[in-house]
From TrEMBL, chain A:
Gene Ontology molecular-function annotations: nucleic acid binding
UniProt similarity note: Belongs to the RRP7 family.
Assigned GO CC terms: CURI complex; UTP-C complex
Ranges of residues in domain Ribosomal RNA-processing protein 7 C-terminal: 155-273
The species this protein was found in: Plakobranchus ocellatus
Segments of skewed composition (Basic and acidic residues): 209-218
Protein name in the entry: Ribosomal RNA-processing protein 7 homolog a-like
Region (Disordered): 203-223
UniProt cross-references to PANTHER family, sorted A to Z: RIBOSOMAL RNA PROCESSING PROTEIN 7-RELATED, RIBOSOMAL RNA-PROCESSING PROTEIN 7 HOMOLOG A-RELATED
InterPro entries: Nucleotide-bd_a/b_plait_sf, RBD_domain_sf, RRM_Rrp7, RRP7, RRP7_C
UniProtKB/TrEMBL annotation, chain B:
Subcellular location: Nucleus, Nucleolus
The UniProt record lists the keyword Nucleus: yes
Phylogenetic classification of the source organism: Eukaryota, Metazoa, Spiralia, Lophotrochozoa, Mollusca
Keywords (A to Z) from UniProt: Membrane, Nucleus, RNA-binding, Transmembrane, Transmembrane helix
Any one Gene Ontology cellular component term annotated for this protein: UTP-C complex
Biological processes per GO annotation: rRNA processing; tRNA export from nucleus
Family (UniProt): Belongs to the NRAP family.
Record field: compositional bias (Basic and acidic residues): 1-17
Main location: nucleus
Protein name, entry field: Nucleolar protein 6
Membrane-spanning ranges: 316-337
């Protein structure tokens, strides 16, 4: 079913604020992608995505590269930066944390295009719906399939660069840590404004680490201490209680088993043929 | 003051417990109002006397299900009264010769007994039975569902018999004719629906008439009619076990038959024939005796019913050579007689005691007996009974052997099963009940090796000529040669296999029925007979049978038995022994077939059965694990891959040593453990040594790279190895910093391996790849600190909490759980050389269903491990086929919803675990995944079954397993030699919506495909290790799986993708229906949808299927050949 045109005068199609574009991957493609364009708006002002100059493009195909996006929108105005992301966000996702694998982000669905001028965004939103645009050409080829896998493999990291990067990060990290330790040591024994002294790892009276495990152990210890002082099966009533408990247990188990049997019976589990 | 719970107290306790509610403890949570004293005492009894209360309840339910309903009993009683009235009033017939067939022909009845030779003297004159009585399990009330049949016994009058009727099958033939005469009268009755003949207990001398008739309330009941002579018709001593009553002169139709009668003493005995007649003579006497012992005790009665169910599930209750229901009743009666069981015992005690004594008894050397009086001179001695070749159970009269039709091999099977079951009861494991009573132990699942021998002229005549004395046995069983041949084959095989086999047993053919106008069932007319071998994993795979020392006297026997196969060999200790070598190859796949070679050789040598008539099932599935290696002249042999796994282990040892010797790392290495499936012998196709990259390949900084213009390089997996470093306070406390540190350590490690040991190395941030002997090992440095850091959460109050996150979960699996699991499974393989092939075959099956990845590989490993750690009701699998069958059975019948599967790895479960784990499971069932596999380190059982498999998938998997099991079992039990065993490994494609065909050049693993015959090139591990390779090969580069992963990631919301990673050439697509519904116009629904606007309605979104297909083609550029609909092409 062909989508109806909402705004006849301009040949673009706008639905709930989203302009729709038809895009084909290449000339050989049989069907179009429908791209959904909108000016990016976010309560968080970011320097990367300046207000008014950033265009959100939804439903881009997963193999889309920066070159492909650039090709699509270069007629609208000068493009400064392009962000490709697997999901829409308010702020740019941190481009691959410093040391985690910085392989190409896969499965992209959204592109954020930052134009030099605000006009770029407007032009993009006004692009005609009817024209089927191509995502690729000679300068911006499709990188997908076997070719993509091979080029991905070829991106072998340089050991030297890796080493330098890691060393730099670690140096920075240890420096930061040292400073923290230093600060804490300085604060050791110094009461805060309410007069409390914080117990730290560096004082004379360290105390054990406050973890869940340790607290549980402490509680257990208390319990055992208490238990030791008790006399077991000393009074007749206690003795009777133990026995009663035993029967109760048996009964509970019986009930439980009976329930289980009922379930099994329902599942016809008792026919050995 | 010290008190214990003892019996005196418990009496008092009952009182207090009984009147508790009225006393002051009302306020307590004691909710036993509905529990009266009786019930409480029952509970206590349960605790003391039964296995467990659940077991008791389960068995009670089972008994309710299998016991015959009161209505049915009444119906049977009425029907038998009706029949006996009719029978007693039958008119006498006319006198005929036994051989006269005219009168039978006019009635369209054929005598239900094999008449070979046909000529026999004597006449037949029908006279109505003196009396008709109901006997057997109906009287003792031990009948079980289904197929309820009451035994009705007619007493043939003395006058019916002539002198010498005991001779030459005359008695049996007249008895059969008697049944014919009865049948001819009964068929005119209106109430009779159905008349058929069958052999009683498969005994060819003893046809019985199965009558189905309408009960008084018009529901059908089934009765079987037997005939016995009036007491005193024959002297019992006439049928002394070693006497001859079938004259060879008559049977073999010699010219001068009278000669036999002169020296009857010297003729070969006919124990089977004699006992068959004695059975009739002593029927009433033994029946009464047993009834007397069994009567009046509910526990005994129910115990026998349970024993029958137990036997029936093991296919041992019915058919020729089976352990009949009457025999088990007799044995229980015997145990009561010798005061091992008393009538006050409950069913559990009766059942358990009987099994216990069965497992300890020996019915040949120390036979049970009903006979209590002084032995008489005319009675056979125990030795004489023993010589008859069957088991012995002397009856009340002292003449008759109750177990005459129970061969020794069946008894050893029963004994073996009893032992297994007693063990099961003792081990207090879960699912005892299922293992004992509910799991059917089918023949193909029970036996490791199964073979069929075709029955044709050559397989019948061969043995008859070759085996000495067999003719007399054929005479004894009335001309059914197969019966005697099977016995001989089993005996010879037991001797030949010796310690290799635990059990050798023919399949018991269950009772055939035929219409009255048909020829009687002939054992020789069966297309084949089937023999199963249960092997001993410790001995079965030896390639050499060491005989006695060369100079010993026994060596002559040894040579005589093995013939030219036997040769003298000098052994390592300097002694010279006779020995038989079965194969030169030490390949595990060849070792598994040693038994097959022995069977072929021995049957030809001793039984005259040629191997072309034998269909041996073991090894039939081996082609699924086999690869054709090139070049042919390498020393690498690829049987079913076990050796390849070992080669990897061997190379890994070197790498471990090298890594441990590293000096440049600041911290010492605590452990080096492989986690790739190959390290637990569970990799379907273990990696092959990589071929040296040719010089024209693209090489950058020592690493070969794939290229678009050249054929894709072969797949080289990187075998992950975890190097656990010691803990230290110096480890950073942030994940990023830990990663940085690890990168530096990896670089150090890689450089040292490369420079000092001149290994071929490739360094990456999170691993170091090392080539050794043509295998690539991926070394990963890790430390538990990282795990702790990932888990640590600081609460607001400053308390440090540990909480599992997705990341920590994954890391824990990799660095803690997998090494542990790998280690535990490796030790199973050390004990059982069959484990590896079994687990790999099971995985292959799963992959072939194109559902790989929908369930964790490790879950599968554990399920197979379960077959080895808790094999009940079987013993440990001895062949991959048996293993696969049991795996499929486990998968399809285990109640995943109600129970966790407890895999007792290393036997580390404690006794209480068997109660606490199911209890915990019950409590948390709602939140647990649909499949729980517990191991000692993972008591909750969710490590490997979360998030996969999902419930719908598990259901599908169960269906697949059930269908495959049925198909494979029938294939194995089918003797045809054209069976295509790969059938269950070829799933139908028609249930996919679309199928993507991959280009062959992109599918680099195509040589692993189920139907592929192509060869695979491998490097030579020998030269590879000497000359250090300078070019690092392309690793982990399998574009087909990469493509599949991309498809799943990109289109996972719209469709499921199915693929067989072992050389599969197609990817199946199934659309998700809900994705095709019209969606609201929202950002989250934009993907692959187009807008639609219907009039004034809000805009919606519709799916663009064409666009998805287009993108599949783009993503699969250079990989996809075509995308087609399988429905159209088929």
């Amino acid at each position: 079913m062909a989508p109806e045109r909402k705004n006849e005068t301009r040949s673009n199609l706008v639905i709930q604020g989203y302009s729709v574009l038809q895009v084909k991957a290449s000339e050989r493609s049989r069907a179009c992608h429908y791209l959904y364009l909108k000016e990016h708006f976010s309560p968080h002002q970011t320097t990367e995505w300046p207000q008014g100059r950033t265009l959100e493009v939804h439903n881009i195909p997963p193999y889309c590269t920066q070159d492909n996006v650039r090709k699509l929108f270069k007629e609208c105005g000068e493009i400064m930066r392009i962000y490709l992301q697997p999901k829409p966000t308010a702020m740019p996702l941190k481009a691959s944390l410093i040391l985690s694998s910085d392989k190409q982000i896969k499965n992209v669905t959204v592109a954020y295009v930052v134009f030099r001028k605000a006009g770029g965004v407007k032009n993009a939103c006004k692009l005609a719906f009817d024209t089927e645009r191509l995502l690729s050409d000679k300068d911006a080829p499709l990188v997908s399939g076997l070719r993509a896998y091979i080029s991905e493999y070829k991106a072998i990291p340089d050991v030297k660069a890796m080493e330098e990067q890691a060393e730099a990060y670690l140096a920075e990290y240890y420096k930061r840590k040292d400073e923290e330790v230093k600060r804490e040591k300085e604060m050791e024994g110094v009461p805060d404004e309410d007069g409390f002294i914080k117990v730290t790892r560096y004082g004379k009276n360290k105390g054990s680490k406050r973890t869940e495990e340790n607290e549980r152990k402490a509680k257990e210890k208390m319990r055992m201490k208490k238990k030791k002082t008790e006399l077991k099966d000393f009074y007749t009533s206690q003795f009777r209680e133990t026995k009663r408990q035993h029967i109760l247990e048996l009964q509970a188990k019986f009930e439980e088993d009976k329930k289980k049997i009922k379930d099994m019976k329902a599942a016809r589990k008792f026919r050995p043929y | 003051m010290k008190r214990r719970l003892n019996d005196e107290d418990s009496v008092k306790e009952k009182e207090t417990a009984g009147d508790l509610p009225t006393k002051s403890r009302k306020k307590s949570t004691f909710t036993d109002r509905e529990f009266n004293m009786e019930e409480i005492s029952k509970l206590k009894e349960t605790e003391a006397l039964y296995h467990s209360s659940l077991f008791r309840l389960q068995v009670s339910e089972l008994l309710r299900e299998i016991s015959v309903k009161q209505k049915m009993k009444q119906r049977l009683e009425e029907a038998s009264r009706f029949l006996s009235d009719t029978l007693k009033n039958l008119p006498s017939g006319k006198e005929h010769k036994i051989t006269d067939r005219k009168w039978l022909k006019s009635k369209h009845i054929k005598n239900p007994i094999l008449e070979k030779p046909f000529q026999v003297k004597g006449t037949f004159l029908f006279s109505p039975p003196l009396d008709v009585f109901i006997s057997g399990s109906f009287v003792t009330d031990t009948m079980i569902e289904p197929d309820i049949q009451a035994d009705l016994v007619m007493i043939m009058p003395k006058t019916f018999f002539q002198p010498k009727d005991y001779l030459n099958q005359r008695y049996s033939r007249k008895r059969a004719l008697y049944l014919c005469a009865v049948a001819s009268h009964l068929e005119n009755l209106e109430r009779v629906q159905h008349l058929q003949f069958s052999y009683f207990m498969g005994n060819p001398y003893k046809p019985m008439l199965v009558v189905k008739l309408n009960g008084h309330d018009l529901k059908q009941v089934s009765l079987s009619l037997h005939a016995v002579p009036e007491s005193g018709a024959f002297k019992e001593s006439r049928f002394h076990v070693s006497k001859n009553n079938v004259r060879p002169g008559w049977f073999f139709e010699k010219s001068d038959p009278t000669k036999d009668d002169v020296d009857a003493e010297s003729l070969p005995g006919t124990p089977y024939y004699n006992s068959s007649i004695l059975h009739d003579l002593c029927w009433a006497k033994n029946g009464k005796f047993v009834e007397k012992f069994l009567g009046g005790s509910e526990g005994v009665r129910d115990g026998i019913k349970l024993l029958k169910v137990w036997l029936n599930q093991r296919e041992l209750l019915k058919g020729f050579g089976a352990f009949s229901g009457f025999l088990i009743s007799c044995y229980v009666a015997h145990l009561i007689m010798v005061k091992k069981i008393n009538k006050l015992m409950n069913f559990y005690q009766v059942f358990r005691t009987t099994l216990l004594y069965l497992s300890k008894s020996d019915w040949v050397l120390d036979p049970p007996s009903f006979y209590e009086d002084e032995p008489q001179r005319t009675q056979p001695t125990t030795d004489e009974f023993r010589d008859s070749g069957s088991c012995v159970f002397i009856d009340r009269s002292g003449f008759y052997n109750l177990a005459f039709s129970l061969p020794v091999h069946t008894f050893s099977r029963v004994k073996h099963e009893a032992k297994l079951s007693v063990d099961t009861l003792e081990q207090q494991q879960q699912n005892t009940f299922d293992a004992l009573f509910m799991t059917s132990v089918s023949f193909p699942r029970k036996f490791d090796h199964i073979f069929h021998v075709e029955v044709n002229a050559s397989t019948l005549n061969g043995p008859l000529e070759k085996i000495g004395g067999i003719q007399n046995q054929v005479m004894d069983v009335g001309g059914h040669s197969t019966i005697s041949i099977i016995y001989h084959v089993v005996k010879v095989l037991s001797d030949a296999l010796g310690k290799r086999a635990v059990l050798v047993q023919p399949r018991i053919t269950s009772g055939k029925q035929w219409a009255k106008g048909d020829d009687p069932f002939e054992f020789d007319s069966e297309p084949c007979f089937t023999i199963g071998i249960s092997i001993d994993n410790m001995n079965a795979f030896n390639i050499l049978d060491k005989g006695p020392a060369a100079e010993a006297i026994e060596s002559r026997d040894f040579r005589a038995f093995w013939g030219e196969k036997s040769e003298m060999r000098r052994f390592k200790d300097g002694t010279i022994h006779e020995a038989v070598l079965w194969t030169e190859s030490s390949c595990q796949s060849d070792r598994r077939l040693v038994c097959k070679r022995i069977v072929h050789y021995v049957l030809e040598r001793h039984c005259g059965i040629l191997s072309k008539n034998i269909q041996y099932m073991e090894g039939k599935l081996d082609p699924l694990l086999h690869l054709n290696l090139l070049p042919k002249d390498t020393d690498v042999v690829y049987g079913t891959g076990e050796e390849q796994s070992l080669a990897v282990h061997h190379a890994f040892d070197h790498v471990t040593r090298a890594v441990r010797a590293l000096t440049s790392l600041p911290l010492s290495i605590n452990s080096v453990q492989g986690i790739h499936p190959v390290f637990r012998h569970a990799c379907v196709f273990p990696p092959l040594p990589v071929k040296q990259a040719t010089s024209d390949a693209e090489v950058v900084s020592g690493c070969a790279l794939p290229s678009e213009r050249k054929p894709l390089p072969p797949y080289v997996p990187a075998l992950k190895v975890i190097c656990m470093l010691e803990g230290s306070g110096k480890w950073p406390e942030e994940t990023e910093a830990i990663k940085g540190l690890k990168t530096l350590l990896h670089i150090k490690m890689g450089t040292e391996l490369k420079d000092k040991l001149s290994l071929c190395v490739s360094i990456d941030k999170d691993h170091v790849d090392v080539v050794k002997d043509g295998f690539v090992f991926r070394l990963i440095i890790s430390n538990t600190r990282e795990l702790a850091v990932l888990r640590t959460v600081k609460t607001e109050s400053g308390m440090v909490k540990f909480k599992d996150t997705e990341k920590s979960f994954a890391l824990e699996k990799e660095i803690i759980e997998l090494p542990r699991l790998t280690h535990l499974l490796h030790s199973i393989q050390q004990e059982n050389p069959v484990f590896s092939a079994t687990v790999r075959l099971c995985k292959r099956w799963l992959a072939a269903q194109m559902v790989w990845g929908l369930i964790a590989e490790e879950a599968l490993d554990l399920m197979v491990a379960f077959l080895f750690t808790s094999p009940h009701p079987y013993s440990v699998p001895g062949s991959p086929i048996a293993g696969l069958l049991r795996f499929l059975h486990l998968l399809s019948t285990f109640n995943w919803k109600a129970d966790p599967l407890m895999v007792n790895l290393n036997k580390d479960f404690k006794d209480e675990d068997f109660t606490t784990i199911p209890k915990e499971f019950q409590k948390n069932r709602a939140t647990l995944p649909c499949m729980c596999i517990c191991t000692p380190p993972d008591k909750q059982g969710t490590k490997w079954t979360k998030p996969q498999p999902t419930e719908p998938f598990l259901k599908r998997l169960i269906v697949l397993a059930r269908e495959s099991l049925a198909a494979l079992e029938s294939q194995i039990m089918n003797s045809s030699n054209v069976t295509d065993f790969k059938m269950i490994f070829r799933p139908p494609l028609s249930h996919f919506d679309l199928v993507i065909h991959l280009l062959k050049k992109a599918n680099i693993l195509h040589y692993q495909g189920v139907d592929e015959k192509s060869d695979v090139h491998v490097g030579d591990s020998k030269t590879g290790s000497n000359k250090s390779p300078d070019i690092f090969p392309v690793v982990e580069f399998c574009v087909a799986t990469k493509f599949l992963d991309d498809l799943k990631m990109t289109f996972g919301d719209f469709a499921w993708f199915f693929y067989d990673p072992f050389g599969g050439s197609v990817i199946g697509i199934v659309w998700k229906v809900q994705a095709f519904e019209r969606k609201e116009f929202k950002v989250s629904n934009f993907r692959y949808r187009k807008p639609v606007i219907d009039g004034d309605e809000r805009p919606n979104l519709d799916i663009l299927k064409e666009s998805i297909l287009d993108d599949i083609r783009v993503i699969g550029g250079g990989l996809v050949e075509s995308i087609v609909s399988p429905k159209a092409s088929h």
